[in-house]
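Handout, section 4.2: multi-component inputs.
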Amino acid sequence: MTALSLKGLNKSFGKVQVLKDINLDVDDGEFVVFVGPSGCGKSTLLRVIAGLEEASSGDVLIGAENVNATPPSKRGIAMVFQSYALYPHLNVRNNMTLALKQEKQTKAVIEQRVAKATQMLDLQDYLERFPSELSGGQRQRVAIGRAIVREPKLFLFDEPLSNLDAALRMNTRVEIANLHRALDASMIYVTHDQTEAMTLADKIVVLNEGRVEQVGSPMQLYNNPSNRFVAGFIGAPSMNFLPADLIHKGDTRTLGIRPEDLFLSDDGVLSATALHVEALGADTNIIAQLGEHQITIRLFGQHSVADGESLKIGFTDEKSFYFDSNGSRVH
Amino acid sequence: MRTARTHFPSAVAMHGALLLYMLIALFPIFVILINSFKKRKSIFREPLALPNSDSFSLIGYKTVMEQGDFFLYFQNSMIVTVVSLFFILLFGAMAAYALSEYRFRGNLLMGLYLALGIMIPIRIGTVAILEMMVATGLVNTLWALILVYIAQGLPLAVFILSEFMRQVSDDLKNAGRMDGLSEYQIFFRLVLPLVRPAMATVAVFNMIPIWNDLWFPLILAPGEEVKTLTLGSQVFIGQYVTNWNAVLSALSMAVIPVLILYVIFSRQLIRGITSGAVK
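Output:
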């Protein structure tokens, strides 16, 4: 069963077209992440699905039902906003129950759902507090709780972790993954952070300039990117791009090699000078100058490389990608 | 008392400046108040002296109570001020919300048009307003005053409130839409509570000129039944003789309701500033 289908979706603001012919299916229980750089249209796409923006053309189907003309609250969805968007003048309990009261649910149902959500999110002690009395992480959990109590078919997350600090971001990421397992609902998650996308997603949708670049599982995108944009966007540090001319004279293609697929070797075909070394303990990143190009080499374990040292760098053919001048993958 | 964040000499200077300002601001009110409790002769002999057993007199208050219908005037002023403020805030906030929230053709022009009234004093149109009120039969009713004051207060209200409403986060309004609130509910239940400090500001700005106005009551509603307090007090100011006891007593009593309203609104102001923000 498909939880959500988008058919030929277009959206323009005035003359600017921000979504271009989006076609997509999300299965029941699937965790789908929209990822892309700022301004690629991923948040707009989420708003169109939510019904907060109207598409210029195309159809949105939720659970096989066309919802083009259905208001957001009747679409069976719930959304978690980047800024949490808690109602500052209501306490946690009232923040969570507002939607249920609007749906005219009975008191018993409301009580039971709030109890369940607060238990899942460990919010029992905060029900009477106001948002201004909560920390960032607690506010985030309340925002998620407000979505859970509605028991939606589809959850929408709009960059929910971008206001949290690094440690809390990792914890909340795990919590969201657990939540997905526990609730068994479909989730759509928007982020510009490829780590979040890789760790959470069943399926990643890479967006660029309003277009879907590639759809696939995290490993499919990593191992088999269909174009230069996806290759560069997925994976951190990002892929090195060099003219293939450096290897085979006269080759006009672009060669792409991931930093972790490069290695130091005396018979390496590339020679470069180390510019800067980042020793991270578990691995070592070397930024090196190769002619007029900068490349990143990621070595596992600890290596002592001095700035300015000459390096011989090798790679294997099966771990390299070739792109034509339009950015399409050719090998 | 020393704390890490206060520097003693600068704290003294700051409090000194504030105290001085308070004295200057309160002095006229203080003079009015003490003189309202004195005999006529003492008012002129020693205007700054406190009332003592010799000079103390309630004659002013007595005159005010006996002459004219002070309580009716008081009630009229109250009705006009409160009703005008209510509609200024309601219509002002609604217009401001429409201007700040919805994208429509002519939004900017409409905003400028609504704000134009800030620069054009409404008194310029007095003759036309009077003709209009005569034509509609509203002369000598409180509605004449209320309508004029709403018109007078709206431009500034729309201007201030729309600025504040632009600051209410879109996510919050969208969260309301997701939760099934209608546009009216979003306006009344989310946006209005959040711009309460701005509403209080608008209310204070509008309240005092309306309460003190003499011009429009004199022209549009001079009838005995609909006189406001300011107009009613004028009976004691004659061309040749002014009953200062009565004038000062009437003024002293006129201050009280404004003071009460001000305290209510300024509380809102402070609470609004200190309450939690969106993030």
